[in-house]
Amino acid sequence: RRQAAIVLPHLQRALRLGQRFAAVSQTHAAALQALDRLDTGVLMVDGAGRIIQASSMAERLLRESAELTVIRGRLALRSPALHDKLLALVRGAMDTARGKIAKPGAALAIPRPHRMPLALEVAPLRPSASAFGEQLPAVLVFIRDPEAPIAAARLRELFGLTRTESAVAAALGRGASLDDIAAGMGIGLATVRSHLKRILAKTGTHRQAEAVALLARSVSMVSNH
User: Fold this and answer.
1) In b/e form, how buried is each residue of 101-113, taking b as 16+ CB within 10 angstroms?
2) Is 115 helix (H, G, I), strand (E, B) or coil?
3) What is the distance between the alpha carbons of residues 125 and 94, in angstroms, rounded to a whole number?
4) Which residues of 173-189 are buried (b: 16+ CB within 10 A; e: fewer)?
5) Fewer beta carbons within 10 Å, N or C terminal of the chain?
6) Residue 192 CA neighbour count, 13 Å, CB half
7) Which of 32-46, 68-82, 133-147, 151-165 has the lowest mean pLDDT?
């Protein structure tokens, strides 16, 4: 009994610590899974741009985008002028994360030849206390490719589109013109217009611009990769 009385408080503390650790681990795993499903690349970097964590989409953009690169573990832009701007944004966001007076974040357009530019946004990640101590301040870098593919299967589920209609709808959501869609799918322009009419009816929109906005925003936050 004496031994149990001595050991029991330690066991209780260990149990509470284990429960807290399990809760933090579950929250961390859920956050990572959520980031991996976004079609926006998310990077956590330090004040020097050194990558601490990267989502699946961020890793894909780093692999496939000629304008982005990683040098010695640090996020970099191919253009020296844009890279200097990025570093300035990261430093400013880190100052904010550390509690200094600075801008809360900023955006940067990264031009691409013959393509729409990548959209990059920088935001501070302020430290927060937890059961295991206080996290260090960091910077979040969001990278969005406006030409990223839209999940046609999700459009079918949401609006009851056929496979062909969902393919046309996905192209519309990416900003393709009716002529481009017809050429890309190998069908006539009149056929594309017919699909557009049915898409408008099924989505409850009345103009092509309304349909494009709805289609782009309905599934754009979920990656199909």
Assistant:
1) eeeebbebebeee
2) strand
3) 8
4) bbebebeebbeeeeeee
5) N
6) 21
7) 32-46
Length of the chain: 225
Instruction: Note the pLDDT tens digit of each residue in 125-172.
Output: 887 655 545 578 899 999 998 887 777 888 888 899 999 999 999 899
How many alpha carbons fall within 13 Å on the CB side of residue 128?
4
Read off the pLDDT of each residue in 24-43 and give the average, rounded to a whole number.
Answer: 67
108/68 Cα distance (integer angstroms): 13
End-to-end CA distance of the chain: 58
CA distance 153 to 198: 17
Q: In one letter, which amino acid is 29?
A: A
Q: What pTM does this model have?
A: 0.70
